[in-house]
Design goal:
Layout (H helix, E strand, L loop, with lengths): L9 E6 L7 H14 L4 E6 L6 H5 L7 H5 L11 E4 L2 E5 L12 H15 L4 E6 L5 H7 L4 E6 L3 H17 L4 E9 L2 H19 L4 E7 L2 H9 L3 H4 L4 H21 L7 H10 L2
This protein binds adenosine-5'-triphosphate (ATP) and magnesium ion.
């Protein structure tokens, strides 16, 4: 495999407060759209024990990152499932939750894997699982950007706020993108985003970037049962149109960031995470 460039990959964690809001569908389809925009994309399934990216992509891979970390598979290349709808993906497997219990040798392998991955991709999306543990939340803090997905439901909005507050209290510099999924109409989506934006401004004194509104669309469930990515099986569905807008907003946002002052890198953050233990 060729190196993309000497610029490390952008790292984006996709999270929610409440589970089941559409993170995996959004990260899968957004990754494919980034691939279509000529980015070298890695989608990292972080849903411990319950990963479903392989189902959404309609592709199964033998190894997970844990097989590499625990030494069952010595080659990192073999962990990556390449060229699925134009992207690569990695499954987290079981056991990533025990980061705090890793031995020195396992930590070293994890660093090596991340060192390798950030130089081979332009963008790495981490699809986070529903049940956030301390370790997965700490890992989230190492990523450069956080995409928070909510639905218009009040409980989803409240939980999204709590998640952002948790992260903000540990790193005030962290950038947040907001996505509202399952909106009945545009007005409902806008009102959801506005409510979160205003709460964050008022209580955390922070600005967050709205990235898009995705409609409630039966195509999502149909695509999941067909095990084919939504944007491929329903190219003209309303949600596919909105995903295209989301992808182009994401592209222009991240290209803006490229011109900004360099923040501490993902790799440096990961190393700090372990040294803090
Ligand atoms: N825009 C939408 N319109 C209709 N149904 C949707 C939409 N988005 C998600 N869903 C439904 O919600 C289900 C869960 O979506 P998904 O698995 O992407 O959520 P998740 O946030 O990754 O869940 P978890 O927190 O468990 O990882 C989908 O299988 C689909 O049935
Ligand atoms: Mg998921």
């Amino acid at each position: 495999m060729l190196l993309n460039s000497t610029t490390p990959a952008k790292t984006i964690g996709i999270v929610s407060g409440k589970g089941g809001v559409g993170k995996s569908n959004i990260s899968t389809n957004l990754s494919i759209l980034m691939g279509e925009a000529d980015k070298k994309v890695l989608l990292f399934d972080m849903d411990i024990g319950m990963g479903n990216i392989h189902i959404l992509l309609g592709s199964h891979h033998k190894y997970s990152i844990m097989d590499y970390i625990e030494g069952r598979e010595p080659e990192i290349e073999n962990i990556i499932c390449e060229n699925v709808h134009g992207i690569s993906y990695i499954s987290a497997g079981n056991g990533l939750k025990s980061i705090v219990e890793w031995k020195e040798e396992q930590i070293q392998r994890f660093f090596e894997a991340m060192d390798y991955l950030v130089l081979r991709y332009d963008v790495i999306f981490f699809d986070m699982g529903a049940g956030a543990t301390r370790e997965t939340l700490d890992f989230l803090l190492t990523m450069e950007q956080i995409m928070v997905v909510t639905t218009p439901e009040p409980t989803s909005i409240t939980d999204a706020y709590s998640m952002m507050k948790y992260i903000h209290l540990r790193d005030e510099e962290k950038e947040f993108y907001l996505v509202c999924n399952r909106a009945e109409n545009r007005q409902e989506g806008m009102a959801t985003i506005k409510r979160l934006q205003e709460t964050i401004r008022k209580f955390l004194g922070k600005e967050v970037t709205p990235l898009g509104i995705l409609p409630e669309d039966p195509a999502v469930r149909k695509a999941v049962s067909q095990q084919t990515p939504l944007i491929r099986s329903f190219p003209r569905a309303p949600i596919t149109m909105s995903l295209h807008t989301l992808a182009s907003n994401f592209l222009s946002e991240t290209e803006n960031i490229a011109g900004q002052e360099k923040k501490p890198s993902f790799l440096k953050n990961i190393k700090n995470l372990f040294f803090r233990r």
